[in-house]
Amino acid sequence: MTLSSTLRRPVGTALLALLLAAASPALAQAPTAPGPEAAQPRAPANIEGAGSVEQMTRELAELQKAAGLLPNPAKAVEYYHNARIQEDRGQPEEARKMYLAFARYDIDVIDPYLRLATLIRVQEGKAAVREVYAALKQRQRAPVLDFVMAVNTDGERGRQLLGKFLRENPDYAPVHYMLAEQYSEDVLGKQTIDDKRQEFEQYGLFLKADREGRLTRYYLDHGMLGQWLEKARRRYAILEKELALPNRPVAAFVRSNAGWMMSLSFPEAVLEVAVRFGEGEFRTTGFLSAIDPRTGKTLPNPSVEIPPNQIGKRIEVRYRDGRDQWVGPFPIIFNPTSELVRENKDILDRFRNAWIAFSGDGKLVYFTHLMSYRCAIESVAYGFENEPLERKFALPPCDEANPYAIPSSARPYVTAPRPVKGVRVQITWRDGTKTEVVDFDRATAAR
């Protein structure tokens, strides 16, 4: 019976003994306590050759210099040394025998157990890993067995088991790396902002444990630790930059004669958007007749009309992320007056060529565009042709209830003392700042 064929069957205590016998007949002779205590976990076996982790690490370094397979391994570190060589040579069954022989020493280091689990998983699947390690748990106490079983459990259940393991073993620092991996894009496929936060936090705790010297005790071969630290530092730096970006909904407000419209943008793909005003209930914004290529689902409507009777009340937004979890609520700051001023100023800044228009004969100069967006303006100074800016154009007061309407009593033009070729204009904004002087040539200006 080969080790591979044995692992394809349910693994119990008897079969585990066969596995250990295949690895090393001497190690297979496990004492059996009589009575009910026989089913209880035993203390780590006191087998000659176990040694401390620090001692084994030093011995392993010396063995690796020789770079040869030991014909008669007799110590835990020697079994591990042989397993690594056989694994590198593409001899998985022989490597598994050596890893199982190492496991009999019940030493709480993670790299041999993770490497054994990888060999089993590649050929038999994760369920076989859990079976083998559950059988090992009947004979041994090393916490690494629970750790590897959790790592080899998929999805939310795996994250829950790792979290449970960490609560029961709060000093077991390597679990932070595996928790970070569970929230990574490699595992999830698509990450939400919350997933990135979880990954960032766990990598940070793993790196903190390294700075405090709390990691090496869990690794026999520091090659695996070095790889983990390299990835943790790289991902931590990337996530630190990504999470420094705005990670909450951003609102933009647009005022028309019909009222206020709020347009929302999000830092990630969303499945649904809900908004509430004041103490009211959250209400969905609905959906557009379009598919979001990031989610493959109907695109939520990002725009919301603000009812006139809700202006001035608190606005809150929440959304469902890519993992169907509600995120938020997030408060939205909305000051109608400052938003109206900002919007009007933005329009006037972007469309400067529209400020002034002339009649065909050059006797009338129109300020209609400035009058329409007057809520951002404190005053308008102008002068004909090369005159100094000593004239003031009179604007009607800003009407926030109907800001773009021009009162019937207002005159949006001035009469020039003569046909003019151009006009010079400077605006003083409501915050006291001024534009540069802008020259308008009648020959090229709008009419």
Summarize the structure.
This protein has 447 residues and is α+β, with helices and mostly antiparallel strands. The chain is 40% helix and 18% strand. The longest helix is centred in the middle third of the chain and has 23 residues, at 222-244.
Topology overview:
Elements: H1 3-7, H2 13-23, H3 53-66, H4 76-88, H5 92-103, H6 110-124, H7 126-137, H8 144-151, H9 155-168, H10 174-182, H11 185-188, H12 193-211, H13 222-244, E1 250-256, E2 259-265, E3 272-277, E4 283-284, E5 287-292, E6 297-300, E7 303-306, E8 315-320, E9 326-332, H14 336-350, E10 357-358, E11 364-366, H15 368-372, E12 377-384, E13 391-393, E14 413-415, E15 422-429, E16 438-441
Describe this entry's structure for a reader.
The chain has helices spanning 3-7, 13-23, 53-66, 76-88, 92-103, 110-124, 126-137, 144-151, 155-168, 174-182, 185-188, 193-211, 222-244, 336-350, 368-372; strands spanning 250-256, 259-265, 272-277, 283-284, 287-292, 297-300, 303-306, 315-320, 326-332, 357-358, 364-366, 377-384, 391-393, 413-415, 422-429, 438-441. It is an alpha+beta fold. A 4-stranded antiparallel sheet has the order 4-3-8-9, with no helix packed on it. Helix 4 (76-88) runs antiparallel to helix 5 (92-103) and helix 6 (110-124) runs parallel beside helix 8 (144-151).
